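Before relying on records like the one below, remember that each one covers exactly one chain. Contacts with other chains, cofactors or solvent are not represented anywhere in the record.
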Amino acid sequence: MPSNQTRLLLVDDTPAALKLLGMMVASMGWEFETAVDGEDALNKIKAQAPGYYSVVVSDWLMPNLDGIGLLQALKRDAERRHIPVILQTALADKESVQQGLKEGAFYYLAKPLDMELVQSVIRSALRDFKSHQTLRSEITKITESFGTAKQATFEYKTLEEARGLSSLLASLCAEPDEVVVGLFELMVNAVEHGNLAITYDEKTKLINEGRFLEEVQQRLADQTYCDKFVTLNLAVHPEDIEVTIQDMGAGFDFEQYLTFSLERMLDNHGRGIMMANQSGFKKLEYSDGGRQVTCCIDRAAVRSALN
């Protein structure tokens, strides 16, 4: 499948529910395939090359293998663990939601499904999947000569510069795929919410209107923001790699974004810092009112070139 093509896998043991979900997806022009339970879905996913499916939308309660079991199986698969899995269920209790998110679900959709919400969440999952795919593919293009670095300082302004730099830094690690997304999300946050002062609610509205990237470009050119940059300091210590990211914004209340909030469960974004916090960093700490964040990658994960 071409890398720019979108294909979803819809999973539900109830034919009527599967048909309804298919109609919601088809109305957006997305291609999709279906599976009748988790076992059927897992077989279809493993029968295709990694990346064949961009998003999996699965019911929770199903025979043979339920939605959580499918999610867990995908997370154990190194080549497919990054496929976003959206769980849908009538289980609305807090414990069920937390279980799904803890296992790595991208989102939780409560039944009965709302068409606009379903489309918004899938659109968000597709955006993240394609962005993170690009990040991981770029790592393989980076020269390993950077592995001799012990200390370095970088400045960047744009999302594209953040993308390239996060791939460069991740290339230092033995498992760059597990690090690059977390680094990228922290670096992007410093641009979007730090230097460009795009608030959480503004981003929600802009994404819904399909104008988010347009707004980012406009602010980058605006005299109010065009001279602002993010400073990134890299330091390689005997026990870990330390990355410090400092923006020039007004700061923000970072505490509420370190873990996923049920109040923000249905929002079309807001998982970046949480994803970074779950990326296996040895430490992730904000300071200076949210304008600075430091993350540490355990020395055991550093490429042997640095030894």
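The first helix runs from residue 15 to 26.
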